[in-house]
Amino acid sequence: MEILSRKHWAAGLAVVLLAGCGITIAGEGLPHWLTVITADQLRGDVTFLASEELAGRAVLSPGSRTAAAFIASRFDSLGLKPAGEGDRDWYQRVPLLRARVHSGSCRVERRDGEPVTLELVWGDDFRCRPGGFSGFDLSGEAVFAGYGIHAPDRGHDDFAGIEAKGRILVVLAGSPDTVRSAPGHCSMTAKRAAARSHGARALLVLPEPGSSEGAARLRADFRPDHLALSGEEDEGLTCPAILLQEEAAARLVSLAGIELVPGGPEPHSLPGIHISCTLQMEDTESVSTRNVLGLIPGSDELRFREFIIVSAHYDHLGSRSDGRIFPGADDNASGVAAMIAAARALAALPVHRRPARSILFIAWAGEERGFLGSEHFGGRPTVPRGQIKTIINLDMVGRNNRGDAANSNTLLAIYSAQVPGLETLLDEVVTTTGLELRLRPRLHMGPSSDHVVFHRLGIPALHFFSGVHQDYNGPGDTADRINFGKLLKVSQTTALLAFQLADEPDPPLFDETITTVQGRTDSLP
Ligand SMILES: [Zn+2]
Questions:
Q1: CA 363 to centroid of ligand 1, rounded, Å
Q2: In angstroms, what is the span from residue 176 Cα to ligand 1's centroid?
Q3: What is the CATH number of domain 33-95+290-441+451-503?
Q4: How far apart, in Å, are the Cα atoms of 462 and each of 145, 455, 491, 498?
């Protein structure tokens, strides 16, 4: 219990070790300063952020602006220092370019045997994620690539054994059970990145058969516009994705002779099947969104210039075409509320008891549209990049993995494997707060949330995540389904860990020479 000897605030820690059987019971020993945060405060913040009034907090929407203003007002009332672009500014502006789709066409042809042509109509039959500002005109042979998931470390690779280069990949939405808890592999962003890296021209996405709710979610996710950071030459960096509506998908499946075996569609070539698509875009316009930043200054006269970041994205998916809102209570009102709670506990410490380094709280904008806020900060940080010692990111931390009550006290901790020192620290902290952590050190991180931007920059990155569930990205992601007892422990864990990292004389460092995972990797619950 190194944590005991190191920290004066932990003097009252009363962890009961049941002699001989190795069971640790924590709870009563919680440092007093962590008791200022409550499940009721968390419930209040999640309920507001996930309310109808905020309408799903889509980037650039009035609901997202209200959410940002709400977070800034919370930071203000807790006594944080504004840490945006100006001295008294809570915000960092994130300049963006946006272009909407004007029109498009898509044709599927069977060229061998008796030729058959399927003409698909923009809007009625298919939607697009453009992947750039200038539209496209592409054609190629089709290949069926299963779910389009490249996750060899999970024993799943839909690209093994198929030729993707120069082809148009026909893939199924969703993911098989074996990789379901890994948005870094299964999200549409991850699938597009995998398709791109394998040289594919485009993804043609079929809704999962029999999942009408899933199809509605997908449609909301395929917004007919392209949004990117201003000044970023992202043209052509992402792979265009085309989503077929259910009926059009059924026609294509029958024309191409694709066999959809439940749970395990095998990738295979589609000889004689040729697909051509065009997309025209409207002119681009300049728009912007905002990150929200608040600071607790460090107490050491030198080390206050070093920073620990605690972050969570505040945007979500908005609403779908029939007007139904995606409340995003877990994704990610839960993370924002836990970040605010951690700030509340740390800000309530007397100034002389505050940790040595400064703690910077950041609510990210535009995560759902490709990590826009964190990418912008990564390129233009408001504090010197080399002074950022660690980031703790929270995204979806209020539910139970797979909706299973057996996971009501478990949390996944995904962190840079190049920072092995984090393992001991995490284990120590949860011994005090009573959460069961599942550790997932990663040398490479898929596009799962904002921490990935920092990991790529060689900054120690840690991500808390309570797992996926049936309401993920759905209208059922409501505040009443949040496990607030767990969310309280997540907030306490975050605050305690941030304190430790900010006060540690030698914080864990990112060691680029580490090329194999050294730490413990826990199995998923
Ligand atoms: Zn999220």
A1: 12
A2: 20
A3: 3.40.630.10
A4: 32, 9, 14, 11
114 Cα–ligand 1 center, Å:
47
Distance (Å) from CA 448 to ligand 1 centroid: 8
C-beta separation of 327 from 479 below 8 A: yes
Domain boundaries, the chain: 33-95+290-441+451-503, 97-281
Q: Tens digit of pLDDT for each residue in 229-257?
A: 987 655 555 788 999 988 999 999 999 88
CA of 96 to the centre of ligand 1 (A): 20
Structure tokens at 488: 């309280």
- The yes-or-no verdict on residue 76 having pLDDT over 80 is yes
What tens digit of pLDDT does each residue of 412-436 get?
Answer: 999 999 999 999 999 999 999 999 9
Neighbours of ion ligand 1 (CB under 5 A): 331-332, 395
Q: Taking a C-beta distance cutoff of 8 angstroms, is the pair 308, 390 a contact?
A: yes
| Size of the chain in residues | 525
Q: Compute the distance from residue 311 Cα to the ligand 1 centre, in Å.
A: 12
Q: Does domain 97-281 have CATH number 3.50.30.30?
A: yes
Q: Where are the strands (E) in 381-458, listed by range?
A: 388-394, 410-416, 436-442
* pLDDT tens per residue, range 290-341: 999 999 999 999 999 999 999 999 999 998 777 889 999 999 999 999 999 9
